[in-house]
Design a protein that fits this description.
heterodimer; A: 338 residues; alpha/beta; Rossmann fold; 2 domains; eight-stranded mixed sheet; 14 helices; 34% helix; globular; B: 360 residues; four-stranded antiparallel sheet; 12 helices; 12 strands; disordered C terminus
Chain lengths: 338, 360
């Protein structure tokens, strides 16, 4: 992965994030590696507590109190000329601030809480341009209006002088996307951007993100737990469980030939529209996501795994297997990929 | 079909205040308008629609947890028929043992200072069921076990449980009185994917063993398809379509249902999403459009739609829709939208466009 191709925008290598508690440090993200190309969507899939959001926040060096990057590299190759390791920039100071919002943009789940309620939408979008480009107010205003039009907000010039509370959820989400895109970032990190929205609005936002990806050649890291969205949006998929990536590969491989028992279990657990006729029973996954403070030994999925082999699965870390771009960490991986 | 619940022209209005909290109401928002529906004994009726469509308000109004402005709610119990709208406060309190509710967020619906045993026994105490302590405990243990909780867990407090287990506690609390009707308001949307399946299957098996009737409110259309016998679609406070799950999903008769079905992302990369994108924003519910409330976002709307409110009409056995053009529009269902697009060629929704006065 270190000899990345020219089209690679982001390459994360052996990233680990730990939480300091009293004198202990607990691994929240454990040796995670992935890469994203230009015009590519990588879906990072996991349930709550899998470490997917922490992974996203560490890319922006926005980790909360107690959390810190314990190892690994986050190599970014941005259109604006930045090439280098984000980890080496540290979490504070000019260097990382010039990357955030310019080379990388981020959109969040809750559009309500990511805008200040007391400033206009326009001021909050223009601020990003003014911080990064030192350009005048008129220029920032023009660009903000342009982008609001591009994300499909009616009356973009009028919208600039309105407050977040005057917007509906879908409009706020569009405004947030506009703010994340205004400096033309090479990488967009989208953390569950449609979870709070209705399906009809969600469809609009997904449509918008797809067309922006094509037009602007952006790389998108799409974080979600919704397998429907993954199937529709992703080019490649990485499945996270309890702080580790257990399987990754092209979207069709993941859905057609899932190789990790957790991936298979997830796919069996979601209802589908076709079930009305076939009367398939969905299969729940027994047990629940392990508490990160008491992560199981060996393979972390072994207490819930229907095909675990004892004592191997509870004592050794699962081996990695790979066939082309499809990779899995499971003792049965070789047979599953064949 | 033996009905358990029947609503007639049920309407709920909220006062709208344009000034401060203490100002006089400046108007009303009809959150639910003229809703007439029947739920059969032992069935699950799904209620879908976007946020603000009135589905939660309708669920609350059926239990009279919010007071309806007008209309009638009847509950047909084996021993008698209750006119829920006419009950006094005291009678209503007693009637609640027959109708219970499960809420969306199991983190805020359980009192953190009560043990699980106290949480599940509370309805028995509040309803003065008059059981001895021993019988009460036996009943609590029985329902807790049916919901997949063990005896040991009854001594603990909610914080010790995961989201899925908390939802099991909430379900046990709702079922301990052996109600006839359970209103499930988004019971799985706060849960993880792997846990959602556990709760859906639990609700299904409890329905079978206890003979429950559900009103299942959800925005996850695939989950609704999985558990519901029939589905009602709401838009801006009105039911626009109702019928068997199969009919509503596969042969919708209302343009809003078509748009809704087209927007569901299937977990299948080879069933690409081709959403019918709705134009514009949802209208202000305190000032709804004239005629059909959906017309401002409907791609098939004509002058007639602005002039006349389309009534909810039965089109075929048990399948009703509120659209002037239900017969002439050939709307696409949840699966056609994904698999049949190429084979069918360009989409012409009208069988004979000359028959309907569609303005360009």
């Amino acid at each position: 992965m270190s000899a990345a191709a020219d089209t690679t925008v982001l390459s994360v290598e052996n990233l680990s994030v730990t939480l300091k508690q009293d004198r202990d440090s607990i691994g929240i993200v454990d040796n995670v590696s992935f890469s994203i190309d230009r015009s590519e969507v990588l879906a990072l899939v996991g349930e709550s507590g899998s470490g997917k959001s922490v992974t996203a926040l560490s890319l922006m060096q926005l980790l909360g109190a107690g959390l810190s990057i314990a190892g690994g590299k986050i190599m970014l190759r941005a259109r604006d000329g930045f090439r280098g390791d984000i980890v080496a920039l540290g979490a504070k100071g000019k260097a990382i601030e010039s990357i955030r919002g310019r080379s990388m943009g981020m959109i969040f789940q809750e559009p309500m809480s990511s805008f200040s309620p007391v400033r206009t939408i326009g001021a909050q979008i223009m601020e990003v341009v003014q911080v990064h480009d030192n350009s005048g107010k008129t220029n920032a205003r023009d660009r903000a209006a342009d982008l609001l039009a591009k994300v499909g907000l009616p009356d973009p010039l009028g919208a600039l002088s309105r407050y977040p509370s005057e917007f509906s959820g879908g409009m706020r989400q569009r405004a947030m996307i506009a703010r994340a895109l205004i400096c033309g970032p090479s990488l967009l990190i989208a953390d569950e951007p449609t979870t709070a929205l209705d399906v009809t609005i969600q469809a609009q936002i997904l449509d918008l993100l797809r067309s922006l990806k094509r037009e602007l050649g952006m790389a998108i890291l799409f974080i979600t737990h919704d397998l429907g969205i993954v199937a529709q949006m992703a080019d490649r998929v990485a499945i996270m469980y309890s702080g580790r990536i257990v399987e990754s590969g092209p979207v069709r491989d993941i859905f057609r030939r899932p190789a990790h028992p957790y991936t298979r279990a997830l796919l069996d657990a979601v209802p589908r529209l076709g079930d009305i006729d076939r009367r398939r029973r969905i299969q729940p996954i027994a047990g629940s996501m392990p508490n990160i403070f008491e992560a199981p030994s060996g393979c972390r999925f072994h207490p819930r795994c229907p095909i675990a082999e004892q004592p191997r699965c509870s004592s050794e870390a699962p081996p990695d297997f790979r066939a082309g771009r499809h990779a899995v960490a499971c003792i049965h991986g070789e047979a599953a990929l064949a | 079909m033996q009905p358990l619940l029947k609503t007639e022209h049920l309407t709920v209005r909220y006062a709208k205040r344009s000034g401060g909290f203490w100002s006089k109401p400046s108007g009303f928002v009809s959150a639910v308008e003229y809703v007439s529906l029947t739920i059969a004994r032992g069935e699950t009726l799904g209620l879908v629609g976007e946020s603000g469509s009135g589905k939660t308000t309708l669920g609350l109004a059926i239990l009279r947890a919010v007071e309806p402005e007008s209309g009638r709610i009847e509950l047909f119990l084996p021993e008698n028929t209750l006119d829920v709208t006419a009950l006094s406060k005291r009678e209503l309190r007693e009637a609640r043992r027959h109708m219970q509710m499960i809420f969306q967020d199991p983190y805020s619906s359980l009192n953190p200072r009560m043990t699980v045993r106290d949480i599940i026994s509370e309805p028995l105490i509040a309803q003065h069921i008059g059981l001895s302590r021993k019988d009460r405990d036996a009943r609590v243990i029985d329902i807790a076990e049916k919901c997949g909780l063990n005896r040991e867990q009854l001594r603990r407090y909610p914080h010790a449980f995961s989201g899925g287990q908390r939802q099991r506690i909430a379900i046990a609390r709702a079922l301990v009185l052996n109600p006839a009707l359970v209103v499930c308001d988004e019971p799985i949307s706060a849960l993880d994917v792997s846990i959602q399946a556990q709760i859906l299957n639990l609700l299904a098996s409890l329905q079978e063993t206890l003979g429950l009737t559900y009103l299942f409110i959800a925005h996850n259309l695939a989950a609704v398809a999985y558990v519901c016998d029939r589905v009602a679609v709401m838009y801006l406070g009105r039911i626009v379509e109702i019928g068997t799950t199969r009919d509503v999903y596969f042969t919708p008769r209302h343009p809003y249902t078509e748009a809704l079905m087209s927007a569901v992302p299937e977990p299948d990369p080879d069933a690409p999403l081709r959403p019918i994108l709705l134009e514009g924003e949802r209208p202000d519910p305190s000032n709804p459009p004239s005629g059909c409330r959906f017309r401002t976002r409907c791609r098939y709307a004509t002058d007639l739609c602005a002039a006349k409110i389309p009534p909810l009409r039965e089109l075929s056995d048990g399948h009703s829709a509120a659209c002037h053009y239900s017969e002439t529009l050939q709307l696409k269902g949840a699966l056609d939208l994904r698999h049949a697009e190429e084979k069918r060629g360009p989409h012409d929704p009208f069988r004979s466009p000359s028959n309907v006065g569609r303005h360009s």
